[in-house]
Design brief:
The chain is of the alpha+beta class. It is built from 15 helices and 16 strands. The longest helix has 20 residues. The protein binds adenosine monophosphate.
Length: 419
């Protein structure tokens, strides 16, 4: 019979990797909490129109990559391709804005996009992100970026680079769009088909191009900074001042145009040079237009989304990632003291040791081999002699040293090691 396998672009997270995931999840929960952000969990399936409207029908994410279908009641349903639209839907649906003038939210979970799979790009991937809804001020943008930086640094990624830009307010962007169209029209024949199409609907996306000839043409293109309103300029300068104050390095990248339609002013991306072509770990920005466009009150907001697989790719090479818990293997060949083994294991787990006990009733030699295979730090050994003396042997498997401890003193002995 055929063996059933995972669908293309989706992956199992196998037991040997799941602790890396747990460490990353813990870093995210802990850091978000320190910044006063609360977790929000939304469904994986939503009405497709949420993303059509919230992300934009003209974007690749919606037009080419979204998993959507007509459900049995003929309603269009989609697997979420990202989570900002869902969080905003929830914010509006539950009227969260009426509870406090500022909601600091974070989320974590799988998202789905039917992209061409490659290293760092999957069809089911995991994102975490934050959304700060309610403040229009640059200190809010700074807080979100500092939190992003904090989580990535704490995850143990070395080569982090923050790219920062502002795409201005609607007014600025409309003027810039017109200037860009005017500049690109004479070069139209040299543009790729995709860019020619974008010139009609979303000329800013052309700045994203990876095509050499287009990059060359764009070198002489008008610059968005020349179109900022006074408020845009002040907002952007203040944000940079705040980031300088906490010594977070950044480079200004005027070509940084996020793929989604609802961004205003600040945009940013954090990349790592350690993970190959798909180097974007995290992207975000201000999206003052989104909440109103989804039927809520006009409310300013700023946030980011990060790819967890990519973060783990960048931390995998790093030996220091993750906290080491000491592992103890209790080696016991005496069946009539297995009750004591359970008691010892329970006490030691309460001290935060990882404790493995033998449940296959193998020989002493086989159990010792197993202890080494599991990379245990310590073996507690109970043989016939120890059973009779009511002692145990505590063997340090890293340096080979060994000592005899009375069974009644085991808890105190290990407690003193943790102090
Ligand atoms: P976006 O929602 O497109 O701004 O993506 C935010 C982050 O999610 C990116 O910086 C990536 O780290 C991650 N990401 C987006 N698409 C994928 C994918 N198909 N596979 C893995 N990670 C992804």
């Amino acid at each position: 019979m055929d063996k059933i396998k995972t669908i293309k672009g989706t992956h199992d997270i196998l037991p040997e990797f799941s602790h890396n995931w747990q460490n990353l999840e813990k870093t995210i929960h802990d850091s978000a909490k320190l910044f006063g952000y609360k977790e929000i969990r939304t469904p994986i399936i939503e009405q497709a129109k949420l993303f059509n409207r919230g992300i934009g029908e003209g974007t690749d994410i919606v037009s080419k990559e979204m998993y959507s279908w007509l459900d049995r009641d003929e309603k269009a349903i989609a697997l979420r391709p990202e989570m900002t639209a869902s969080v905003v839907r929830s914010f509006i649906q539950h009227n969260l804005g009426s509870q406090t003038p500022l909601q600091r939210l974070y989320y974590m979970g799988p998202s789905f996009r039917r992209e061409r799979p490659q290293k760092g790009r999957q069809r089911q991937f995991h994102q975490f992100g934050v959304e700060a809804i309610g403040s229009n001020n640059p200190e809010q943008d700074a807080e979100v970026i500092i939190l992003a930086w904090e989580i990535l640094s704490k995850s143990g990624i070395n080569n982090l680079e923050l790219k920062l830009s502002s795409i201005g307010s609607d007014d600025c962007r409309n003027k810039y769009k017109n200037a860009l169209i005017k500049f690109l029209e004479p070069h139209k024949n040299k543009l790729t088909d995709v860019s020619r199409e974008r010139l009609k609907h979303n000329p800013l996306r052309i700045l994203d191009t990876k095509n050499e000839e287009e990059i060359n043409i764009l070198k002489a293109a008008p610059i968005i900074g020349d179109f900022y309103t006074n408020e845009d300029r002040e907002h952007f300068e203040n944000l940079q001042k705040y980031l300088n104050a906490v010594s977070i390095p950044f480079t200004l990248d005027p070509l940084l145009v996020r793929g989604l339609d609802y961004y205003t002013q600040t945009t940013f991306e954090i990349i790592s040079n350690d993970i190959g072509a798909q180097d974007a770990l995290l992207g975000g920005g201000r999206y003052n237009g989104l909440i109103r466009s989804l039927g809520g009150k006009d409310t300013p907001a700023v946030g980011f989304a990060a790819g967890m697989e990519r973060i783990l790719l960048a931390t995998n090479n790093n030996e220091n990632s993750g906290r080491k818990i000491q592992t103890i293997y209790i080696v016991c060949v005496e069946q009539d003291v297995l009750n004591s083994v359970q008691k010892i294991a329970r006490e030691l787990r309460a001290l935060n040791f990882m404790v493995l006990t033998e449940t296959l009733r193998r020989s002493m030699k086989a159990q010792m081999r197993e202890a080494n295979k599991c990379n245990a730090d310590i073996a507690i050994i109970i043989g016939e002699q120890e059973k009779n003396d009511k002692t145990v042997q505590v063997k340090n498997l890293n340096d080979g040293s060994q000592q005899t401890i009375e069974q009644k003193n085991i808890f105190e002995h290990f407690k003193s090691l943790t102090l």
